[in-house]
Amino acid sequence: MKMTNVEGAQCLSVMMSIQEKGKLGFAIAKNMRKLNDELREYFAKRDELIMQYGEKRDGDRYWVPPEKAQEFIDALSVYDEIEFDFEPQKINEEEFCSGSLTSDQMYALYWMINE
After folding, report:
1. Closest CA to 22 of 110, 91, 108, 102
2. Per-residue b/e over 48-59, b at no fewer than 16 CB within 10 Å?
3. What DSSP designation does 90 have?
4. CA 42 from chain center: how many Å?
5. 87 with 3: CB under 8 angstroms?
């Protein structure tokens, strides 16, 4: 399947908040690893831009102040829509629905279901 960098980052963010076990947890963990690998360069570029447009705060942490937020968003958007091929770990619908996912999490991860 095709996925953009920003879509992959959003899915990864959703998966990081899920605490599942069994086949669903296994599939989520595999997909997290695959997405992390695919998005490595995108995250590196995002971090580079955060340091470029941001300011240091709390030790080594950077944050982008509101007055530079739009510049940062514009600079990152060049990389957001770059597509990559992604072969997700899929599971059947019964296993997908057997966990404790919220409806928002299910919506974000519907692509994990075998059809």
Report:
1. 91
2. ebbeebbeeeee
3. -
4. 11
5. no
Q: Do residues 113 and 1 lie in contact, with contact meaning Cβ atoms separated by under 8 Å?
A: no
- The answer to whether 109 and 15 are in contact (CB under 8 A) is yes
Using CA atoms, how far apart are residues 61 and 82, in angstroms rounded to an integer? 27
Give the pLDDT score at 58. 80
Per-residue pLDDT at 57 exceeds 90: no
CA distance 5 to 83: 6
Give 36's contacts (C-beta < 8 A, 6+ positions apart): 12
Decide which of 14 and 99 is more confident: 14
* C-alpha–C-alpha distance, residues 101 and 20, integer Å: 8
Q: What is the pLDDT of residues 17-48, one digit of tens each?
A: 999 999 999 999 999 999 999 999 999 999 99
- Only one residue has tokens 């879509």, namely 7
